[in-house]
Structure formats: C-alpha cells, structure tokens
Please model this.
Amino acid sequence: MAAGVAAWLPFARAAAIGWMPVANCPMPLAPTEKNKRQDELIILNVSGRRFQTWRTTLERYPDTLLGSTEKEFFFNEDTKEYFFDRDPEVFRCILNFYRTGKLHYPRYECISAYDEELAFYGILPEIIGDCCYEEYKDRKRENAERLMDDNDSENNQEGSMPSLSFRQTMWRAFENPHTSTLALVFYYVTGFFIAVSVITNVVETVPCGTVPGNKELPCGERYAVAFFCLDTACVMIFTVEYLLRLFAAPSRYRFIRSVMSIIDVVAIMPYYIGLVMTNNEDVSGAFVTLRVFRVFRIFKFSRHSQGLRILGYTLKSCASELGFLLFSLTMAIIIFATVMFYAEKGSSASKFTSIPASFWYTIVTMTTLGYGDMVPKTIAGKIFGSICSLSGVLVIALPVPVIVSNFSRIYHQNQRADKRRAQKKARLARIRVAKTGSSNAYLHSKRNGLLNEALELTGSTEDEQHMTKGTSLIESQHHHLLHCLEKTTNHEFIDEQLFEQNCMESSMQNYPSSRSPSLSSHHGLTTSCCSRRNKKTTHLPNSSVPATRLRSMQELSTIHIQCSEQPSLTTSRSSLNMKSDDGLRPNCKTAQITTAIISIPTPPALTPEGESHPPPSSPSHSTNIPTTATTNIVKVSAL
Amino acid sequence: MNLEGLEMIAVLVVLVLFVKVLEQFGLFEPVSLEGNPPGQTKKALKQRFLKLLPCCRPKSIPSLSENSVEDEFELSTVCHRPEGLEQLQEQTKFTRKELQVLYRGFKNECPSGIVNEENFKQIYSQFFPQGDSSTYATFLFNAFDTDHDGSVSFEDFVSGLSIILRGTIDDRLNWAFNLYDLNKDGCITKEEMLDIMKSIYDMMGKYTYPAMREEAPREHVENFFQKMDRNKDGVVTIEEFLESCQKDENIMRSMQLFDNVI
Model:
C-alpha cells in the first residue's frame, strides 16, 4: 500500500459501512489506538539545514532509519531536534520520498555518494520511481564498469608476484605483448609476416612483364617458386603461432571456438589443402575459391589493432540496427523493383527484363549510386524511379546515426579506459608519497621520542622542549597505536632505504659466513628478498619501490632475536648479521631480545662507546644503549 | 495524351504528394471538421509555416491543435478550493484539527482538489490488492457525489465522512440505504442488491477459503431480502430497512464500530 494513500485509510474504513447491513455475522473489534497523541512536527537538522515534517509522515516507512526508533540515537536533547551530519542536498530527496512515496534520483548527484546516503538511511534503491530508475541504473552500471576496470588493472600489477607456470606465462605473453621483450618480439614478427603474406597475395595477381609469346603473365606465375616459398614461410609461422596459442590457452575448447582462432585456421587451411590436392582437374575450381580465403589473413591484424577490435565489437552490438536496415532495404527493393518492372514492361528494348533484373537498378538508385547502365524510359518509370531514389536516401539515413553513436560511445569508453590507466600511475604515485609521508612521520616522532628518552638517561633536558613539537592529539594517538603494534609483534617499522641497505649488506656479508640449515624465516626472507631484488634490477637505495614491496618489507622485521651469552656490547651490526642464525636456537641461555632500528644515519657523536666498529661500507648503523645489566631487555636504537 | 494504367497511378501519386505538401503549408484546406474563422487562418498559416522550420518550433502547444488533448489538460489544471475551515466546521461534525488532517491527506492524493471517478477507483483499489474493487468504488463514488456532477470535492468527501463517522446510527443507516439504492428511487430492488453484493464479493478476489462459488452473491441476496423485506413485495423501502436493521443486534453493534475511526 502506498504511503500517501495511508491518509485515506479512514475513508476506506468508513466506506465499509456498506458491508455492515448485509453481513450475517458480527464484526471483529476494531483496534484501538493506545496513547493517541496528536500529530506533531519534528525537526530534522541536517548539517545545519532544518527540515520539518510530521511525525506520521516519517512513520510511514517503519523499516528505515527515520521511520524507526533508530533516529532516537541522533536526538539532540539540548536543541530537541534530530541532528544528522550528512549531506543536506540528498536529504531533500530522501524526505520527499517519505512525503510523496516516490524516491527520485537527481542527475547532478554522484552515484556513489547517493548510494551511500541511501544505505545510511536504510532505503533500498529499488524503490526509485520509474521516472528516475533508468538513469540511476545507467549511472550505476557505468560506475561499476569504471571500478571494475581499475580493479582489473590493479590485479594485473599485483599478479606479477606469484609465480606462473610456463603455460600461463606464455598465455600472458600472447595476450599482453608488453609483459616481456620476447612477447613483444613475437608480436612484431607475426605482424610483419601477416603484412608480408597479404602483400604477397596482392602482388601475385599483378601482371609483370611479358613472356615471349606476347602474353601478359601475372607475377604469381612468373616467379612461382619465389611466391611459393614466401607463402610457405608465412604459413609455417602462422601454424607455429596457432599451435603455441593452442598449447598455452587456459581453456582449449573455448580457444578453439573463439573468433580469432577460427580466422587463424581459415587463413592457413588453403595452403594445406592445396598441398594435399595437387593437380586434380575437377576440384581445381574449388581450389581457386580456396585461395580467396587467404585474404582472411588480414583479419589477423585485429589482434594488433585496438581500433579494429572496437569496430568489430560495435558491429556486433549494433546487430539489431543493422538487421533492421537490411530488412527495410530488402522490402523497399522488392517493392520498387516490381513497380519498375511493370512500368517499363511496355517500352521497347527495355533493360528491365525481369523483377530480379530490376533489383540491380533499385539498389543502385536507392544507394544513390546511379551507374546509368539501366535507366527507365517511360514516364511512369521515371516517376517511380525518382520516388525510389528519394526513399532510398531516407531508409539508409535512418539507422546509420544509431550505429555511429554506438561506435562513438564504445570508442570513447576505450579512450577513457586508457586515459584512466595513464592517470592512475600518477595518482598512485601521489598516494604512495602520502602514505610514506605518514609512516615517515611516525618514524620521525619515534626517533624524537627515543632521543628524548636517551637524553633523559644521559640527564640533559635542555633539548626536550623543542623536541616535543606540536603534534596533534590525533597524530600522537596514531603513533601510540603503531607503537603498541610494534610492542605486540616485537617488530619495528623502518624506513625503506635503510631496509634496502640492510638487505644488501646482509647479502654481501652472509656469503662468506657459514649458514646453518636452520635459517630463520626472517633471515631467509631477507636474503630471498634481496636475491629477488638483485635478479630484477639493480636498484639504487634511493630509488622508490612499488607500494607492494614496501608493504612486504615492512612485514620483514629487523628484529634479530638473539639468545646469546655475550654481553650486549657485541650486538653490533656486523654481529647482528652474522650471528643471527645461532641466535635463533630455541634453547637460549639468556633471553635477550634486541630490537634493532635501522634508520637514517645520525651524527656519530652521540654514539655511545659500547658499539664495536661499524662496517665501513654501510653508512647506517645501529647502536646499543647499554641499560642496566640486570634487565635482560636491551633496547637498541639509533640516535 | 492517353494515360495507361500505371502511368495513371503514378500521376495520382504525384498529385497526392503535392496536395499533402500544400496542406502542410496551410495553403489548401480540403476538409475541416470545425470551420475555422477566417481570422484564425492567418495565424494557423504562420504557425504551420513556422513549425516546418526546425529553429522556431513552438514550445507550447498551439491552441489550434487537437482539442482532445486540451480537454485533459484543462481538467488537470482546474483547481478546486474548498470553503473555509469555519464553514466546514459548521457543516460537519469534525473538529478543526480533524478537518486539517483530512484535508492534508485529501490534497496529497488529489492535488487538484477534486477526485474524479478514475482516481477514486485507483485510490480505493490500493486497499484491496487481491480483488477487484472497482465496481464497489463506483457505487461509493456515486454515494459521495451528492450533487452528481461527476467529481467529488472536499466538501462532498468530508460531509459523507461526517455522516458515517460522526452521525447517529439512523444517519448511518440512511447513508447505507442511499448507497444501496443505485438509481436513487427510494427503494432497493433485488437486481440492485445483487449488483452490490457481487461488487462486494469481487473485492475478495479469487483466492478465498472456501472457494468462491457463482451462486454465493445470489444466495446472500435472498438471505438479505428474507430478513429485510417485510411485506414481501420484492423491494426494500427505507422504512423496512431501518426497522429491520434496528431489530438486528449484529448490525447495530457493527454500526458503532465507526465511532473511533478518526
């Protein structure tokens, strides 16, 4: 029952008076309204804009936020109004829904913002009225496509990490030539051979030179062997390519059924059939026909050209318009051909010998070609001929704009996708900078905090004041949170650059040392990370690393849990790297947990003496602050 | 020049096209259903000429276009305002606040201020989704439309409701009798009662328990007449109706249901 009609319920109940006298049995009791209160105005304050409505208006839809008791959570006692910290523009539409029973979608509103508001107020989007529903669905679909595109390309980047089987790499190489140089080479080679093959087919038929005997031969027959060799080479390349694709395809059955593979097969079949049936006179006619199919090789270019694919897709999606065009043209052709035939029947030596013969005239006239090989001679013929050409223009002009607009829409969509992908890189870079900025802020504040503690330990308090900068409450709470996480996991956050350096150092220094098979996972990760890195590119420590790598690096810890009997003094960098493996023996004599923060180099003046010589190759170092020996927890920090 | 068959047809086609083009320009009016006064032909001419040009398409519907569309527009733009609140208060037995609530609901569904039969039927059908309530709604409409002008204004609406909800039991019975008496001749015949009964049963729809039988309305009507028709003359007059209803306890009790509707 529509909500607006709820106001007419008293009328409907009153109209039941017509049933009373005819009823044979007594009526049930009517429900009484307990605490019947007067309808009151309630004030809804949405971000400062006040809306007022009757309470009963809102109660029409009891399963939404405003209609149920959920709105009591937003009641402000002081001002006696309901305060919502949301968009007032969208709220207008939502309140109108309660009033009129119809939910409208304003065109200027962003679809995701609108969806969020609807979700907040507990209203299903399906209630949107017919007037706005189509628009809403269109925008939503567009948005979903956009997001799907983004996700897809993101996944493609992420997916480089897991190792693919040989078959999968091959398939990826075939589909995206830009993944590796080999794929690119393959792509260009096949393109080149397609071009060669097509040009060969064309040039074969050109007459070149005369043979004594005054007969002009096409080049194909003159240099038969050369052309045959070229053809063989091309077909071999195509065959190899097809077989490779077939091997690499994730679903062979689907691959065989796809359009491109059919084109491939059709392109190479004539050659093989030609090989099989050599000089058989009967089927040589069919053989000639088969050679025509060689021209389909040109369609193989659609793998290389985005535009061709779009064109093909457009034609497929406009199938109904094309069908309509064809149908209406056929109808018109038949009508006019019949009329012209009978009109021209009387005139002598008329070219319109039969109705099918008139088809040619009609088609040529309707498409405004006008070859002039068939012209009407009688007056009636001329009149109908002119009507035919006028209507031809109309019939053809009607469906064409639809096809054109479809093509334009799909083409622009593709362009937009490419543009978005290009913009995405810049966007992601900016986001990354912001993220690293925030993590750097944490590291910075941590250093400052530790510096404070160090200063406290050493007793100097003069620098304390300017160390405690004005960090906002939120920032300090966030940092506290990260600190708690560090404490929980016994790992610490470090800077990118230093981690890389640590990585390289450990890889360099570990080769001479003997490694026990029971390497810690951490250690293994370190080396594997570095080895992976070294395999890929030779990074400078200052270069930026993709966001994913940063994450993985953050997971990798710099904690070396050392269970060693040596005093903390020897927990220098070099020893950290070298002794990590024995440190991880499960039975530790003394439980000493060292946390190493490897950070940006600090002035060595603050280095306490307890540190053994830092390796000269690394600019960064970690130091110990020897705390009281009784506590077994040594905090290593860099000052 | 002797024209043969097809040539004749060709020439005819050309002539027809020519005439149509002239019609568009308004230079040639073959048959006009309503004689346009000469003063308007010039305006019509200009308008039609302008209509052909794509740039000067008129935004509003010109007054000389189809009149049937115009009629519909007229009805929807007519706005009926009810008499003042005080007058309605005097005429009906509702309080001021009740009238306000009723009017707000009324105006929400019918912004133009009056309800026509189609609207009425549509509103009423929303309360009975399972069956077909259109016939009963028609009877109701005729009962509410006391001045029989084809539309129910707010005054009609509220005066009807006043009788049903705030009137005495006799008033209510009178109103019910008025509802049943389809031709308003003062007595209810068996056919009228059968129509009413059928319309009530129609509202139930198909899915009932026990299943609806064809003869159910007729039997019910027989029952009713047996109860109401004292002198067995085949019609029920107002006196018979009132008398019989006052004797029936069930009916009297059900009449009291309407006290608390608003």
Observations:
- Residues 399-458 of chain A form the longest helix (60 residues).
- The interface with chain B takes residues 1-2, 4-5, 7-15, 17-27, 30, 32-33, 38-39, 100, 339, 342-343, 346, 378-380, 383-384, 387 of chain A (CB under 8 Å).
- Confidence is low (pLDDT under 50) at residues 460-468, 512-639 of chain A.
